[in-house]
Specification:
CATH topology: Rossmann fold
CATH architecture: 3-Layer(aba) Sandwich
Strand order of the largest sheet: 3-2-1-4-5
Number of domains: 1
Number of strands: 5
Helix content: 40-55%
Shape: globular
Strand content: 15-25%
Largest sheet: 5 strands, parallel
CATH class: Alpha Beta
Radius of gyration: 14 Å
Number of helices: 6
C-alpha cells in the first residue's frame, strides 16, 4: 500500500478582498501547514469569485508555508461537493493511503461525509475551531438537504 498521504484544504472567500486570503481560509491553510509532512501531497481547492482575482486555491498555494513540496491546485471546484470530488480524484491519482480533509469545524461534518462517499480509502478530518458566522451556519444547515443525493452521486463516481 502507498504511504502517500493527501492533505486536502478547502477554500473559503465569502466577502473577501480581491487577491487577499480570507481569514477563514488563512486559518485552514495554517492548520494544513501543521498537518502536512514533507512526504505528503497537498491539494488546495477553491474557485475564483471574480474574473480579475486569483482563485482561493491559487491564493492558498501562494501563501503556503508548510513542509510539503508536492502541491496541487484545483481552481475549478465551486462547491463543497466539487471540492471533495477533486480531493477524491487526486487521492486516486496519487494512490494515496489516506486523505486528511482540512476545513472549518462548522463545515467539517458535511464535507467529511461527502468525501467519505467519494473516496473509498481512509479519511480524517482536521478542523479549525473558529465559529462560523450565523449566515454560514444557516447556509450549512440548508446544504444538508442535498447531502443524501450528493452521497449517492459521489459513491457512483468512485
Amino acid at each position: 500500500m502507498s504511504r502517500t498521504r493527501l492533505v486536502a484544504v478547502l477554500g473559503y472567500s465569502s466577502g473577501s478582498i480581491d487577491g487577499v486570503l480570507h481569514p477563514v481560509c488563512a486559518a485552514r491553510l495554517a492548520l494544513a501547514a501543521r498537518e502536512a509532512g514533507p512526504a505528503d501531497a497537498v491539494l488546495f481547492s477553491g474557485w475564483r469569485r471574480r474574473r480579475t482575482s486569483a482563485s482561493e486555491a491559487e491564493l492558498m498555494a501562494r501563501n503556503w508555508s508548510g513542509r510539503a513540496q508536492r502541491l496541487l491546485v484545483d481552481s475549478a471546484a465551486r462547491t463543497t461537493y466539487g471540492n471533495v470530488l477533486a480531493a477524491a480524484a487526486a487521492a486516486r491519482s496519487l494512490a494515496a493511503s489516506e486523505v486528511v480533509l482540512v476545513t472549518s469545524g462548522w463545515h467539517g461534518r458535511r464535507a467529511s461525509t461527502l468525501l467519505r462517499a467519494a473516496h473509498a480509502g481512509r479519511v480524517f478530518l482536521a478542523a479549525t475551531d473558529e465559529r462560523g458566522t450565523t449566515g454560514a451556519r444557516v447556509r450549512e444547515l440548508a446544504c444538508w438537504l442535498l447531502v443524501p443525493l450528493q452521497v449517492a452521486l459521489a459513491r457512483h463516481k468512485r
